[in-house]
Design brief:
single chain, about 100 residues, alpha+beta, 2 domains, three-stranded antiparallel beta sheet, two-stranded antiparallel sheet, 3 helices, about 35% strand, binds zinc ion
């Protein structure tokens, strides 16, 4: 199962559609068309215009895109926080936005 996730890629289109696909199914033909920005790719009986594709991303990358869109932010350790909190510049505590830190 872990292997499946690791090999999963997500094709993101300009309209925001997300198409999960195993990396090994992204054929040379797909990559060539993407390079040339011309043609359609065929996935599970559906045809997608290559011009509408933004790119092919790992699930973590797409997750980060979603979080940033929601206003979440990431610290230097990769930990995500909601838009409603910020870090105290004095002690580094995470505090609600608009509030001051109790320590400093
Ligand atoms: Zn503080």
């Amino acid at each position: 199962m872990k292997n499946v996730t690791k090999n999963l890629r997500i094709i993101v289109t300009r309209s925001g559609m997300e198409i999960p696909i195993e990396n090994e199914r992204l054929t040379l033909e797909y990559r060539k068309k993407l390079d040339q920005m011309q043609g359609f790719i065929h996935i599970d009986g559906e045809d997608i215009n290559i011009k509408d594709i933004v790119g092919t991303f790992k699930p973590d990358t797409v997750d980060a895109m979603h979080r940033r869109k929601r206003g979440e932010w990431q610290d230097e350790n990769g930990q995500w926080y909601s838009r409603d909190v910020h870090r105290c510049p004095g002690c580094g505590n995470i505090i609600p936005k608009g509030k001051v830190c109790g320590n400093c």
